[in-house]
Each structure stands twice: as structure tokens, then as C-alpha cells.
Amino acid sequence: MPEQSRGAGSPARYGLTDSRAEEYLRAAGWWGATGPEGSSLDVLTALSRSPDPDLALRSFDRLRESEPTAWPQLADALRINPILRGRLCGVLGTSTALADFLVSNPGEWRRLANEKNTDAESYSTVLRAAVIDDDGPGKARTKGDAESALKTAYRGLLLEIAADDLGHVVERQLDQPSYMEVTRHLTTLAEAALVAALDIARAELRTDDPSETRLAVIAMGKCGGRELNYVSDVDVIFVAEGDLQVATRLARAMMRIVGNACFEVDAALRPEGKAGALVRTLEGHTAYYEKWARTWEFQALLKARPVAGDAELGRQYIDVVKSMVWSAAERENFVADVQQMRRRVEKHVPSELVDRELKLGRGGLRDVEFAVQLLQLVHGRADAEIRSSSTVDALAALGACGYVGRADAAELETSYEFLRIVEHRLQLRRLRRTHLFPETSDKAELRVLARSIGIKAGADRSAGDVLVAEFRKHAQRIRRLHEKLFYRPLLQAVASVPTEALRLTTKQAANRLAALGYAAPDGALRHIKALTAGVSRRASIQHALLPVLLDLLADTPDPDGGLLSYRKVSEALEETPWYLRVLRDEGAVVERLAFLLGTSRLVPELLARAPEVLQLLGDPARLAGRDPAEVSKSLRAAVRRQPGLNAAVAAARSLRRHEMLRVAAADLLGLMEVRAVCEALSSVWVAVLQGTLATVVARRKAELDRELARISVIGMGRLGGAELGYGSDADILFVCEPCEGVDDKDAVKFASGVAETVRKLLGTPSADPPLQVDTDLRPEGRGGPLVRTLDSYRAYYARWGEVWESQALLRARFIAGDIDLGERFIATIDPIRYPAGGLDAVRAREVRRMKARVQTERMPKGADPTLHTKLGRGGLADVEWTVQLFQLLHAHELPALRTTSTPGALTALADAGLVDAADTTALAEAWLLATRVRNATILVRGKAADQVPGTGRDLAAVARVLGYSADDDPGEFLDAYRRTTRRANAVVERIFYDS
Q: Is residue 672 left, alpha or beta, with left meaning phi > 0 and alpha meaning psi from -120 to 50?
């Protein structure tokens, strides 16, 4: 008969494409001359919803032929009973194996007509009743009869579980059991089968006296975790007391019986594997695990659970191995061993199957299970809440307790359950053990599989295509999260912490803190108690982080200060949702944060107000690789968007804080060279001035409805040289020029108001490092006007300018405001700072005398001149005055010397042959070292400082920042500093005073 058409009276309307479909329907009594017969429409609708309608209909026809007398009763029951209809159509449209069982066991379909009883006792009762000989109470049937009875009873109960699992696909009003319910039922059934098989084995071997031999069956793997598949090997371990030969015969007989009747029993997880004794005593197991067991064996024991035989002996076994399991993470290379095991398992999957392997492939079930088990074994030592043998329960606990992010745990659980459901449906087809997803070319198999899961076709895709897309999505998600969790660097760090140290508030913890180098262990314990108080998720994550953090802080110069800073930062950021998640998930972030907190007092102050920088610690390229020009552009744009002056300055401060912290972190971690640090700090200061000036000018212009003057800001000193440090002020000059039709007086008044507002706004006290604008280098110093016109500057320098002002102008550069005005100012001062013919001898001597006076008068009382980075011997002033003297003498004839950069000028001096290359190298090394040490000292102390610490933890911290290890004597750093600056000072004495 040709394939059915899809007319109103055609079986094809119900998804039936078999050429004999109408013949089967007529024989069943469900089809008349023109279509559905009588009240059979519900049956045909159910058939259409089954995963494979043709398979279901052929199976019904086989049932009709095998039970001709009972068929009318079954056909009528299908019409009126939705429970039976949904369950039976679901089973017959999915599983050929269960259809075979129904056909060969008349009447078994009746067990699907009512709600089933699925508790453990009912399974055990049914199976044991099947194998007990009615003629001999308490005695098992003979060997062959018992196995056959057990097989039939087991398969019947498996049919009930499958029918309950599939019924909702066909009849929507039926409840859909969760994946967990199905696996628990399958596990309970398997346990009952083991118990029944052990009864049969005892009857066979006539070992009814339990005092002769005590045998306990320990479930492992999926059975131990109560998460069996429809077709699974059941992993077991046998432990016995008494006659081991009898116990071994019992174990072998039980394995044979269950294997013949129900499922394979695998005892390969026992000590020494298949080469080891099948049965051991409790002492034998203990001795093996204490001396010989490998890492993977403890991982397997995580799921160990007694399920049959002597219950007390089983409990004793679990009590013995439990402590070993939860201390296994202390083994050397434990984390690496588990990770290597997963990679080894993955390599065994043939390359052509790796994308289809549900269990062992990339993104498969093992990815989830290995990740969960590793997290459990590492963190479960001190947290009993996560010690579940069930993968799903353990994953939920890991998420609830903070070891895994909530979203990650939820996504991983969803994807794991999806793959397990796919695995179940694949196995139900023929009741064979398989983990291979169908090939994408097998459209028919994919369609049936998709429909059995409840996946429907989309608007433009078949159900099979939707299933393939879902499978790939879940596999990719599992692999991504597996790599995130399984290879989390924090795991190795936590595993290396002794178990006792994970109990953070014990007396032993205080002793360990003292041994680690904490000067005030009692104070440290108070911080720990505050951070871990309560039962919140936040406290749980802190409890997991702190043992590692304490070890990391112990390697820093100031562990106590670092822990206090960590507490302050944590309390300040307790409402920041991602803060602890980043620390938990990014091992590199924890390591770098610990170093920063235990080294610097400035970083934690900034971090509490710029927490977003914390997220950059895991990515050195983002932390250290930002282009200063791009940073400046972003800052100016952000300031422009603000609605008022205060908001604009607040935005500028916020972005400066962010950038200062970013640069400080990169600097401390050795990710930025000192010149890059200075350039970045200078760039952000310039951007702050640019944004603030533009905002104030716009505000004043709006108030007056006109602009009275163009204004430029000229950077001086370190700002002009792009050589700012963390504690540097911004030396600047304000220059203005009247707009058309405005006289000089009104222009200066307008510009002075703008300049004063800028200075006050930026100088307002705040918790951030100060934004101090210094205008003391202007003509006449503090006594002179804050702002002058360009003509006024020109006239002043021409008539009254002194040599120190020419020297100061060597570092002048335009940084903000009107560009044309700024460029004309620079052109105006070039002849003053680069005087034609250079300095005469008189003015050169004046420069030398000024340096000597400054060094004498400004050196702080009691300061060590060999350790003062600014005014000390070979320090910043020595090098800069020397460079500037040569610029005053020779820049008029050497354009390369016309630079505001100290290192750039030193290079030009060497290239021009004015100073020996060895001497400029010595000067450059000293200047860079002094700059770096000055920055490091400020970062360590949290405030401006020019004196290198001579002793104590601050000295150790500065030395660490400079690259010395914790094992090095900080005195070596001081010696190296003095040696470098001494060489530079010798050069200065020779070329500055004798040049």
C-alpha cells in the first residue's frame, strides 16, 4: 500500500506513515470506513504525540496478536484511562525493548493503569516475593527459576519507572517526574535487586547463618550517588568478616545472578582493581587505603554507600573511609592528579566520536562530575554541607555555600540534567548501555529522540534540528564552566592548606598564624571572625577564601596590615555583588590582591572607592596596557557629560582615582616601567585640568552670556615633563588673552575668576590623594597675579626675568585650554629658556649657588642625605639641576636638548657628545631609581614621602616592590640604592660644578 496521504480520513493526519497503518488501526478497532472509530480519537491523538507513532502502533498490533482475548479490555481501557494511555503510548513509542517485554509477558500492561508505588520497600517487596519459593517459606527458588523470576520482576518495575517518565510527553495532564526522581527510583530498584540476588546466592550456597560470614555490599559510582541510568553497570565493593572464602563465593554468586537477571555488576573499583581480591576484611581495606591507594580511588570513594548485606559492617566501612576521603586533598599533587585523570579519560575517546560522546567527551557528563568532585574534595574537608554523594545535590550545595557562583551552578545543573535525560532516552530505545548522541545525518533517530524528550519543531527547524542545537549549547556551556571550575587556580592553593588550618577560629589557627609571621594572631582571628560571622553566602565564600588569603598575606611584608585592609575592603564592598565572586573564581586576582594589600597602604584606600579595578587584576594586559591618550579622552568626555560644576569635578576625581589605582596596582606588580607610570599619572592629571577648565569656562560664559578671554594652562615642573609621581602637585601657569572688544583688565578678571574656581574645586579636601594645583612658579611667585596676559608675560620676562625663572620654564608645555594661545606662549618663552649664546659665566655660577643653597636649606632636619630621593646625594634634584644647566648652556644650538623630559635630555647630551655616555647612563639610572623608589615609598606608606625607609616593614615592602624577594635582606636594596646614587653624585660633582 502506498504511503498514506494527509487527508481528513488518513492515518497520516496522526503522524502515522507506515504503509500498513490503516490496517493496524482497523484490526485494533480504532478505525472505521472513513476514519477514527467511535471514541478512539483520544487514542489516535495519543499515538500522534508519542515519540515514534509508527513504532507505537506496530507494538500495539503485536500486543493484540499476543493477547487476543485480553485485547478488547486493553483497547477499551486505552480509550477511557488517560494514565494507561499516556504511559503505554509513551513506552511503546520509545522503547522496542520494553515493547518486547510487554509482548512476551501477557498482562504486564495492567501495572501501568494506576499510580505506581515507588518507595524502596515496595521494590524490595516485589523482587523478594518473586524469588521466594512458595513451597518453602523463606527459601529462594532454584537457581534458574529464581534468576528468571528476578529478571521478570525487575523488568516489570523498570517498565513502571519508564512509563512514569514518558507518560507526560503523550498525555499533558500527567505529572512530569524530575530527573532526580527518575534516577532515585532507578537506584532504589537496583538496590532492591542486589538485596534479592544476595538472598538467592545465600540460598544457593546454603549460608543462611549470618554469624558464619558477614558480607556488606558497598555501592559506588552512580549507584552510590543515587543517580543511576536505565542501563548502568552498578559499581560495588565487598567488605566481609568471618570466612572470606564463603564471602567471596557469595559475592561472585550475587554478581552472576544480578548480571544474568538485571544489570552488570562491576567490582573493578576495589583495592588493586581487577587484580585484587574480590572481598577484603575491613582491616584489609583500611590498610590498603592508608598505604597504597591512589588519588582517583579516594575520588571514587566519595560516592561509597552501603546498600545490601550486613548494614552494621557497611556503616563501619563508611566510617573508616570517610575520614580518608575528606583528607585526600592534602595529598601531594592532589589537584594536579585529578586534573590529569580527567585529561587521560578524555584522550581515550576516539576523535571521530568526541563530539557525540555524552559521557566522556568534551562538554560531557564527566566534565560536570569531575569538577563537582574536585570542588567537594578540596572544600569539603572543612564544610560538611557539600559532602553529598549526588552530583546534582552536591552542585546545589556548592552553589548555596558560595564555592560556585549561583548562575554557574544553575546553568551547570540544567545542562547536566539535559544530557542525562538524553542519555536515558537513548538507553530506553533498546535497553542497551550507550552514551553516543545520534549522528546529525540520522534525521529519523533525532526526531524520535527529540520527541521523547518533549522537544517540538520550531517555526523553521525540525524537532531534530532543535535537539542538535540544544545539545551543542549545553555541551559548550558544560565545557566552559568545567574549565572555569576544574582548573581554578584557587583549588590548588586551598588544597595546599592543612585541614586544621581551614578551621579558622581554633586555638591551633592562632598558633599557625603566629608561625606564618602574623605579629598579632589574636587580632587576625578577630578579623577572621568578623569576616566569616553568620550563615550567609558571603560568610561561606569568605570561609573558603581566607585560608588561602592568610597564606598569601603571610608572604607579604605586612601580613597583619594586609588582613586588616582586606577586612576594610570587604566591608566596604559587601554590597558589591561581584566582589567575592571574582576572588573565588579568579585565582590570579586573589594572589595579586594579597600582595597589594600586604604591601601598600594607598591601594586599599583607593580600592574601597574604585572596586572595578579589582576585576582587572586577573588580566595584566588590561591592567597595564591602557593608552594614556585614550584614558585622557575618556575622562574629558565623562566630565563634559556632567550637569554641573560639582558633578563634573566628582566625575574627574572618580576617573582619576580609578586610573591612579590601576597604575598603582600595575606598578606594584611590576607590570609597568617607571617612565610609563609617570606618563600615565601625568596624562590623567592633564585630563583632569582640561575637563575642569572647560567646564568652568563654559559655566562662566553662560553666566555672562559671552566669553571675555581665551585661557591656556601651561604645565611646569614634573607635570610639564610628564614625570609626575603619586604624591606630586600640579605646577601650572595661567595665561589669558582678551577676546575681541574686551580690554585687558576685564579679560584678566574673567580669567582670574576661572583660574581661582579651578584651583578651589580641585583642591577641595577629599578621601583621595590631594589634587593640589600649585601656581608658585608664576612671575613674582605668590605675590604676583594668578593670571597674566600673554603680553604681560612677555614684558615681565624681558625686563624682570631671573635665571631661576628661565630654568623653571625649561619644563613648560601647553596642557589645557586655548591651543593657539598656548602655542604662542611657548614660542614667546623659547628665547628666554634657550637664551642665544647660552648662559654667561655669571649666570651659570648663580645656578650653581642656587642649587647648593636649595640642597642645604630644604633638606629636612635629621634626614639621611644618602636616602633622600629628592634632595639627597645623587637624587632627583642632583640629576635635574645638572640637566637643566646644560640645557641653559647649549639648547640654543642643539634642538634635541629642547625637551621637557629629563631622560630625553640626558640622551640628547650623550648623542651630542657634551657628556660622556657612561656619565649620562649613571645619571639616568640614578634618576629612574630615585623616581621609582619615591613612588614605591608613597605607595607603601600611603602618603607623600621623599625619604627611603631605613628599617622595618616599610623598608621590606619598598624592597619587594623594587623586585627583591622576601628571602633577600632589605639591606641589599639600601646598599644598591646608595651605590647607584653615589655614582651619579660623583658625576654631578664633576660636570655640574666644573662644566
A: beta
